[in-house]
Amino acid sequence: MLTNKLNNIKVHDIAVIGAGPAGLAAAIRCNELGIKNTVLIERDSFAGGILPQCIHNGFGLKFFNKELTGPEYCQVFIDKLKENDVNLLLDTMALEIKKPSKQKNGSPGYFEIIIAGKKTGFEIIKAKAIILALGCRERTRGQIMIPGARPSGVITAGLAQRMVNIEGYLPGKEIVILGSGDIGLIMARRLSLEGCKVKGVYELMPFSTGLLRNISQCLDDFGIPLFLSHTVTEILGNKRVEAVKVAPVDEGLKPVLEKACRIKCDTLLLSVGLIPENELSKTCGVQIDYNTGGPTVYENFQTSVPGVFSCGNSLFVYDIVDEATKDGYAAAESAARYLIANASCENINAEVLFDKESLKLYRNLYGSEAAEKFFDIEPGENVAYAVPQKISGLEHVNFKIRPKKPLKNAIVQIYDKQGEIFSKKIRYVNPGEMIFLDVSKEHFRKYLFQNHGRKLEHVNHGLKELKKITLSIKNH
Amino acid sequence: MNISERFPKEKQEFLQYPTVTVIGAGITGCAIARELSKYKLRVTVIEKEADVGWGTSKANSGHIHPGHASKKGSLLLSMGRRGHVLFVKNASELSIPMRKISSNLNAFNTEHIKKIEELLQQGRQYNVPGLSIITNEGGRLKKMEPNLNEDVIAALHCSNLYVISPYEAVTAIYENSNDNGVLFLLNHKVEDIHFDSDEKKFLIRTSSFKDELYFKKAETIFSGAHKNIIAGKNHKSGKFENKNEKSIKTYNNFRSVNDYIIKSDYIINAAGVYADDIAKMAGDDSFSITAIKGQYFLLDSDVKNLVNMLNIRVSDPENEESKGMYVGLTPHGNFILGSNYEVTEKDDTGTSAQSLDTIKEKLSRMINNIPFNKVITTFAGVRAYASTGDFVLGPIKANKSFINAAGIQSPGLTCAFYIAEVIAQHLKECGAKLINNPAYNGQRKSPVVLDRQDFLANKELYNMNDKFAEIVCRCEKVSEAEIIDAIRNGATTLDSVKFRTRAGMGRCQGGYCTLRVAKILSRELGVSFESITKSGQDSFIAGSKMP
């Protein structure tokens, strides 16, 4: 049935790639806005992304004001999707995106997505706009280069979670966890509940990278020790892990090998970070930000390729799913605006999204030379990354800022060469918790008028030194 | 049915053929087995690992050397050139993918220049084509290789070498040998060798790890046409009695061990780093093997234009035995950095921070801008260096029916097919009758793989088998059809599938496909999910099933 549907629709208005929380939200919102031929492409045999394997609760506090489990949270959206008219393609992998070739009549043309699926085979899906919600992958042993043997039993925490919660197998009996990322903490509790002995969680940094609530609920409540400023220095075992060596690290994060000790275990779980998945994005030339690992985006979630939007964990790694859902909605609205601005979709409810003035502004902004007109946001002191990386100064911006180190009584500052644009005091800053900063368009206007004595529209043309805005987290 | 139908003559004849047992299924053992299958012989290969090519053959540079770079007066040098030629010829018969590359051996000082001049002379002596010395005059080298360090003053350029995936090569030879009637006993470790002087036959006792797959395979082995394999006394009881304490120790992780006795007229010892231990079992202590470890970095395939060719450092005095550290290319488009030279234990394939740092530091002085943040994995391999400093090829003094193919250090991969020919010649000289096997077919068809440049070109494959459109490995884009094909060609573990199809070899290192591949293995082999291993023995993927 799905295949037939695919053949009947020659061009989709929007293709959403990835049916995790961000992709589900984006597809639903597209439909709500009147876009009737959205296609949602998912490589797994079920929708929901990583959520179906996250059977613990704590999801939805922001969005639904109550604690749901992962499967419950995504089921809300899967049900909603069913009510809507979205073409969901499961078991289908998007392999490549081809940018539209230039059209003679000046219209933007169509993207071509090459897909592979058991039902469809190798086919092309055409779309006017694309929303990338590709999720993220786990950093591996190879990338952090843990020395030693290469036996079985070294696995990433997310893979272990799938093994336990979806497939119904335990990864081992005696577990050591490297990295205090959230999945590692959740798995420490999960495996303890299943009778495994979790011997400890070792974290390279002098602070945990997970949510504080997870440290208390997953480690403290189960008596699992957390060793900060420690790392695994060697893996031992021929065919199966027999032990690991752990050692404290000095201030430069170098292991102090004289203090290394051997811990007997049969499994080493790695929770050492997540990397936005963007192999597909790169196939159509989307520019990637070195700091986030995700696409460089404007405040409206558009990537460097007009008509391609990014949201969810493939944009940057979120702490909580509610925010990914929210940004999925927002990306869908931007994609809809893009279609209206390019006059390539008739059904969209334009009034919801634009007044006349802002439609004109939008067309002016996100045209072919968009990058020229924007301010670059640069991560400054104690900022690992900030999203969006480019802003117009004409629209409301919701900054997401990842701090590098914990800090008490901090102040987040946005400034350029001329002085401060915006600041906010924050009592406690922690790398495990993203900072959200709303800056209104009025604020930008006011500032730019005061500091530069002219209207923003004029600033935007050709003044390179004025086009860098820095974002820092400092001691207050 | 009459008597000639019930007992076909050609089968009876087969039982008259001499039996040859090759110990070790690395590239050397497999190439020898294939060479011997050209003759009317019953060939059995015994391998302790769950798959072929998992020793030295697995982790090395994969270079098919042109044949000029070994030390004077050695077989390593005198066999090098013909080894290269024979490899190219056999690789084409066996459809082993080869990537033609060129190389620069980079010199930093006048000592180095002297060295490369010597090598050039040596190359001329052995008719190695495509060699020349290029100096950096007018920035010539820098033009060839924009990331080359300014300190390089000259290079020995070679326009004529290949890089291959060594395990792809071993797998190809294995499949072709199988087709030509060679029997492979994988997962079997040789414990003891005895020569029965009455019967004039060797008795080889092996042990193996008893798991689900073992029982599946046992049947095939006993019904095997070779009929020279006898189950040990304890086969049914599952208990292994061994007077040799040491061998029990090596198996102390095993749940249970069984043994076979294999009768054989001849033994070929191709046991890699363990070849001296095997030779001792037959009474030969003329050489010993030192395991030399080399460590490597593999970069993400999205790193482009780091180098255009293989760049080697002239080896340092302390490393003189090795060919020097290099920044190279794999046949699959990744860059590979390696390797050092360190004496180690035979079973040690672990990496160490210290050695990796040394490699990093030394190579960074040859090639600028190496993106070490793009490393997807590091690994190590051991090479077998014989105390003679050379290949050890030929019969032992104590018993001419036992022939060594040992000490196979670099350029051992290049010389594999030549070594096989030499061993066959030795076998003949030792009295074995080598009668041509008319059924031999050396051609192997390459496996059907997806077109990964143009995915739409795979529509025909999909029409043939819809599993070609089920992508199991997201990074390397490997389909279920290719994985099933690998399993039908002998893969029984996750690593076997990985080395055959590249599933799990990409940047996520199996994060996405591990469980998917394990499920396919379990289904195709007809064994439980828990019994699937990463690399045989007790390297299980999943622990116990949850209640």
Instruction: Supply the number of helical segments of chain A.
Output: 13
CATH topology of the largest domain in chain B: FAD/NAD(P)-binding domain
Number of strands of chain B: 22
Based on CA inertia axes, which overall geometry of chain B fits?
A: globular
Overall mean pLDDT of chain A stands at: 89
At CATH's second level, what is the architecture of the largest domain in chain A? 3-Layer(bba) Sandwich
CATH class of the largest domain in chain B: Alpha Beta
The major sheet of chain B is characterized as: 10 strands, mixed
Determine the CATH superfamily of the largest domain in chain B: FAD/NAD(P)-binding domain
> CA-to-CA gap between the ends of chain A?
61 Å
Describe what this molecule looks like in 3D:
The complex is a heterodimer of chains A (476) and B (547). By secondary structure, chain A is α/β, with parallel strands linked by helices. Chain A has 3 domains: 233 residues, FAD/NAD(P)-binding domain; 133 residues, FAD/NAD(P)-binding domain (3-Layer(bba) Sandwich), CATH 3.50.50.60; 102 residues, Sandwich (Immunoglobulin-like). Chain A is built from 13 helices and 27 strands. In chain A, the strands form 7 sheets. In chain A, strands 1, 2, 5, 6, 7, 8 and 19 form a 7-stranded mixed β-sheet that branches. Chain A has a 5-stranded parallel β-sheet with strand order 10-17-11-12-13. In chain A, α6 runs parallel beside α7. Chain A starts with a helix and ends with a strand. By secondary structure, chain B is α+β, with helices and mostly antiparallel strands. Chain B has 3 domains: 188 residues, FAD/NAD(P)-binding domain; 162 residues, 2-Layer Sandwich (D-Amino Acid Oxidase, Chain A, domain 2), CATH 3.30.9.10; 77 residues, Arc Repressor Mutant, subunit A. Helix content of chain B is 30%, strand content 23%. In chain B, α3 packs across α13. Classes of the chains: A alpha/beta (476), B alpha+beta (547). At the A-B interface, β6, β7, β8, α4 and α5 of A face β18 and α14 of B.
